[in-house]
């Protein structure tokens, strides 16, 4: 896969700096005809290489916080159920340190088991608030879960 994206990665390195906005990178790749999945693949390789290059200059965020830099990707059974915003909200809870990896997985499993249809941010907030993980959720966002 690295060979497949080698030329695109070289173009990104030549066009953008390490502190460029991700939205600019996404827009650039979309203008080159890549779909969302391909953009994700290219960006993950790009940031993996950027992290390797800058690692000897300064400690990474993972080294400072003591956390891994792995990213949880949705499984096929989760892709159609979670809205993009809901999945992003879950990732934000995990990356901010509010939710541990175990609690993250528990929230995902509970959402899949207890909520019918699409799972949005209000449903995730209700689940997180139920177990005391999300104090930000307001009463208007709550969804009744059975």
Keywords:
elongated; single chain; 146 residues; mainly alpha
In short:
The chain is mostly helical.
Structure write-up:
With 146 residues, the chain is mostly helical. The protein is built from 8 helices and no strands. The longest helix is centred in the first third of the chain and has 19 residues, at 36-54.
Written as H for each helix and E for each strand, in order along the chain, the element string is HHHHHHHH
Q: How far apart are the first and last residues' alpha carbons, in Å?
A: 44 Å
**Helix fraction?**
55-70%
Report the C-alpha radius of gyration, rounded: 18 Å
Estimate what percentage of residues fall within beta strands. under 5%
Globally, the shape reads elongated
Q: State the secondary-structure class.
A: mainly alpha
User: What is the oligomer described by this structure?
Assistant: single chain
Number of strands: 0
- Summarize the biggest pleated sheet: none
Point out poorly predicted stretches.
52-66, 136-142
Number of helices: 8
Mean pLDDT: 75
Question: Secondary-structure map with pairings?
Answer:
Blueprint lengths: L1 H14 L6 H10 L4 H19 L6 H5 L10 H4 L4 H12 L5 H14 L6 H10 L16
Helix pairs in contact: 6-7, 6-8
């Amino acid at each position: 896969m690295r060979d497949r994206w080698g030329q695109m990665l070289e173009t990104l390195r030549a066009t953008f700096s390490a502190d460029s906005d991700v939205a600019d990178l996404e827009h650039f790749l979309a203008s080159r005809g890549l779909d969302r999945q391909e953009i994700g693949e290219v960006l993950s390789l790009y940031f993996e290489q950027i992290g390797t290059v800058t690692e000897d200059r300064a400690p990474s965020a993972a080294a400072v916080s003591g956390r891994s830099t792995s990213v949880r990707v949705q499984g096929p059974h989760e892709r159609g159920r979670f809205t993009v915003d809901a999945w992003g909200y879950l990732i934000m809870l995990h990356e901010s340190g509010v939710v541990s990896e175990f609690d993250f997985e528990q929230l995902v499993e509970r959402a899949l088991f207890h909520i019918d249809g699409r799972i949005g941010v209000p449903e995730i907030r209700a689940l997180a608030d139920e177990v005391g993980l999300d104090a930000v959720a307001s009463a208007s966002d709550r969804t009744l879960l059975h």
